[in-house]
Amino acid sequence: MTFTQCGDKEQNLFKVNPDIPAREALEHATNLFYYTKKLMLDAAMEKQGKRYAWPAYYLCEMGKAIIDDVSNGIPESRLN
């Protein structure tokens, strides 16, 4: 899974690597979402909260890419 487009051609800047154990990937995603939550709370509570928006956005993109890749690796028969 690739994420974070940049440049005039909107090329993907990052990617999630294959063959990472699902449990470890999900633990990492959990950490990303934890810190995203912290940044978003700061953004909501502080006068200058806008400065937290972009870091939170990128952390969410990273976490989503991990979750998407893990879910894409689960066979359809196990999702039902």
From TrEMBL:
Pfam families: DUF3077. It comes from the Bacteria. InterPro entries: DUF3077. This is DUF3077 domain-containing protein. It comes from Pseudomonas saponiphila.
